[in-house]
């Protein structure tokens, strides 16, 4: 009994320590670039909100348009992606490109959301976009 208790305390202590450690890689960006990137990020979240709302309201063309212009391949120039890419580690750049590509794929899928079964496809494609947000956030930090 006592041994069991010690074991449980040991495991618990371990997992708390693991949670407290931040193992994300720190990416050092010049301050203005960091601010620019975080401002892009806040717009990414607003765009996801708009897209999700569009889907809920059956506004599929709007969902498609928002995703392409604010998250997709077309958004890269306005977000200054080419300017920022050289400062990012290769892995981070790869996740960033995967996100832009996934958003452009969603944009195409969303147009078909009105057809039978289309909504599931659209949400599946949206999850692919969000998977890239989560993957990058788990691996990197800028401050
Ligand atoms: C290629 C990497 C990458 C991708 C992809 C990415 N992010 Fe981020 N995001 C970051 C990093 C790094 C931070 C800063 C985290 C830190 O330093 O703690 C951040 C921060 C944020 C923040 C906080 C902004 C602030 O003002 O502090 C939001 C909101 C955010 N991201 C939303 C998103 C959303 C939504 C997506 C997907 C549509 C996304 N991000 C995709 C890397 C990424």
Please, could you describe this protein's structure?
The chain has a single domain, classed as Up-down Bundle (Four Helix Bundle (Hemerythrin (Met), subunit A)), CATH 1.20.120. 73% of the residues lie in helices and 3% in strands. The chain is built from six helices and two strands.
Distinctive features:
binds heme C; single chain; two-stranded parallel sheet; mainly alpha; globular; 6 helices; Four Helix Bundle (Hemerythrin (Met), subunit A)
- CATH topology term: Four Helix Bundle (Hemerythrin (Met), subunit A)
Radius of gyration: 20 Å
- What proportion strand? under 5%
Gross morphology is: globular
Bound chemical compounds: heme C
What is the rounded distance between the termini?
A: 45 Å
Unreliable stretches: none
Question: Mean pLDDT, as a whole number?
Answer: 90
What assembly state would you assign to the polypeptide chains in this entry?
A: single chain
**What is the count of structural domains?**
1
Query: How would you sum up the major sheet?
Result: 2 strands, parallel
Q: What sequence of helices (H) and strands (E) makes up the elements?
A: HEHHHHHE
Strand order of the largest sheet: 1-2
**What is the CATH top level name?**
Mainly Alpha
Question: Count of helices?
Answer: 6
DSSP strand tally? 2
Write the layout of secondary structure elements.
Blueprint: H1 2-20, E1 25-26, H2 31-56, H3 60-70, H4 81-84, H5 90-111, H6 118-139, E2 140-141
Parallel strand pairs: 1-2
Helix pairs in contact: 2-3, 3-5, 5-6
This protein binds heme C.
Heme C (HEC) binds next to helix 2, helix 5, helix 6 and strand 2.
